[in-house]
Design brief:
The chain has about 200 residues and is of the alpha+beta class. The chain has helices spanning about 5-10, 30-40, 55-70, 120-125, 130-140, 145-150, 155-170, 175-180, and strands at about 15-20, 25-30, 45, 50-55, 75-80, 85-95, 100-110.
């Protein structure tokens, strides 16, 4: 695959990604990683092309995680404090590259900044428009009662839609349904093709 295509594909991801070598030298960062690293509130930094962190303890922890991934093929998870905000969660995982071993540093924000397009959910799971909108509300963490209030319908209507969604997706419980829907990648594209039922 050509480098430009790979970079565009990485830019479509819904999480920030930085690819580094054993020394922490940045080989690639997607558009979301650029935004995170430019933020004054970010505990992560790039200086002279090297990924680092503010604060000695976090910097040492990040360096160790990168070395573990590159040299011992082991993954690590870190949580970087951001003061009053929720911590920035990092996954550092090994990668094999043509020129040697590298590490992928995933920067995870929770909740995810974006949700899947409702039409994508409709096409993938055969959901009606109303069910796809309900799916988005559930993914955003609302309860069935809050979903009903937001949609201007009764809780019984929401429960009926939920049961229909269970049948269409194979999920048996709301938590299982939300976990399934959360696996749908949110891509940085607005073009949605395919036919949803409604």
């Amino acid at each position: 695959m050509r480098s430009g295509l790979a970079e565009r594909a990485l830019d479509m991801l819904d999480h920030a990604l930085v690819i580094v070598n054993e020394a922490g030298s940045v080989h690639h960062r997607n558009r979301l990683a650029n935004a995170v690293l430019k933020s004054a509130a970010s505990p992560l930094t790039v200086s002279a092309g090297i990924l680092g962190a503010r604060g000695r303890a976090l910097h040492a922890e990040l360096r160790d995680a990168i070395r573990l991934a590159c040299l011992q093929r082991r993954s690590s998870a870190l949580a970087a404090s951001r003061g009053m905000q929720a911590p920035l969660r990092l996954l550092v995982v090994p990668m094999d590259a043509a020129g040697g071993r590298e590490a992928a540093v995933w920067i995870l924000e929770w909740p995810s900044p974006r949700l899947p397009h409702p039409r994508i959910l409709g096409v993938l799971f055969g959901l009606s428009r109303a069910e796809a909108r309900l799916a988005l509300r559930l993914l955003a963490g609302l309860t069935p009662q809050e979903c009903a209030r937001e949609a201007g319908v009764g809780v019984a209507t929401v429960r009926s839609q939920l049961h229909s969604m269970f049948a269409k997706t194979g999920a048996r419980r709301q938590a299982e349904l939300v976990a399934l829907l959360a696996r749908v990648p949110v891509l940085g594209t607005e073009t949605v093709r395919g036919r949803s039922p409604n």
